[in-house]
Structure formats: C-alpha cells, structure tokens
Amino acid sequence: MSSSYVAEAQQLKIACRLKAVGLKKRIASRKFTDERLVRLLGELSRSKSRFWRAVAKKLSTPRGQRVAVNVSKLERLGGEFVLVVPGKVLGAGVVSKKLEVAAYSFSRAAVEKIEGAGGRVAGIDELFRSNPEGKGVRMVV
Fold this sequence. Notes:
The chain is of the alpha/beta class. The chain has a single domain, classed as CATH 3.100.10.10. It is built from 6 helices and 5 strands.
C-alpha cells in the first residue's frame, strides 16, 4: 500500500471519530427529560453502524421537530425491509400488508392497525439489540 492511501485512510478514521464526537456533544449539551430517550441515544451513538448513528441524530432533535409518520406512508414503503421511524407512528390510513415497524413511540390506533394486518411493532431499542449492524432496515422520515 502506498503511504498516501494509508494517510487518507487515517484521515477518514479521524473524520468519522469527530462526527461521532459531534453527536455525543449534541446529546450531552441538550437537557432531555425522558430517561428512556437518554439511554437509547447513548446506546445508538456508541454503535459502529452508520445507520444507528443516523437514527440517534434524528432522535436527538427537539420533540416538536421529531418525525411523525402515518401508517398509510408505511403501507406504501413497506415490504421486504424492517421500517424504522425515529419518532412516532400515527394511525391515519389503512394497512393491508404485513409490516415490521420499529419506532420510538406508537399511537394506539397505529398498533391496532399494524398488528391487525399480521404485522409486528417493536421499539427501536429492541430492534437495535437484535440487529446491531442495521442490515435489512430502512429509516422512514
């Protein structure tokens, strides 16, 4: 290997570490009142997977700016992937497909519709523990 290639690889590693530190500083500087969210953000930000760090970044936004997705959108996007919503899943729409959805929170109507169609709902923390690499997963925003 050439020395320039090694130098580029080292710079890339440093840049990745700085991005991770930026996320950790962002989490540390905010005052979260939800202990469950703080614990989840800590786990996700320490992950080696870029996908889970991106989910942590979306979850670290203020609650008013967090993602809210209706089940009708999940119906359009669902299929062979597990869908991750870094926010709340709402119950507007009809679900006819068997969906696997992980989110920070669900409305009662959304849970009833997804499970009624034969799907499965889970928390982001459960999915992270069962799939730490983030393979076969898509984020819906």
